[in-house]
Amino acid sequence: MGKKDRYQNRIELLQGTLDLLILQTLQWGPRHGYGITQAIKTRSTDLLQVDTGSLYPALHRLERARFIAARWTVSANNQRVRLYRLTSAGKQQLLSERSRWDQLSAAIAGVLAPQTLEEES
Fold it and tell me: FRET pair for 36, CA 20 to 30 Å: which of 46, 63, 102, 119?
């Protein structure tokens, strides 16, 4: 695997993780872009901050895949904003991504906590 392939895999993992976070956030209800970033930031106790340069390409990608839908509306402070919501396909994708995330987390935990394996030897 070349250096370029390793970099591409890393980007895909990050995009997939961001997609999962966006889908989960929209599971709690429709939000505009800023609301999505604030929900992720708040729920992660300020550890995860999504910049607009990452958020909007992910939103467009998810909308093209029909996992989310968007419509224009006017916010409480009278600004025109796009409101995003989770679609039925997005709910299924969220379940699938959560399952993969749980598998990945368990696999990483197994590597980080090798005493269980060493005790079995």
Answer: 102
For the chain, domains (ranges, CATH) are 3-111 (1.10.10.10)
pLDDT-derived band at 13 (thresholds 50, 70, 90) equals: low
CA distances (Å), origin 90, targets 31, 49, 77, 101, 118: 15, 22, 29, 16, 41
pTM to 2 decimals?
0.80
* Cα 16 to the center of its chain, rounded Å: 6
The pLDDT assigned to 16 comes to 78
Mean pLDDT for all residues in the chain: 87
How buried is residue 112: exposed, middle or buried, by Cβ count under 10 Å (0-12/13-18/19+)?
Answer: exposed
Whole-angstrom distance, CA of residue 87 vs CA of residue 1: 37
What is the rounded distance in angstroms from the CA atom of residue 81 to the CA atom of residue 19?
20
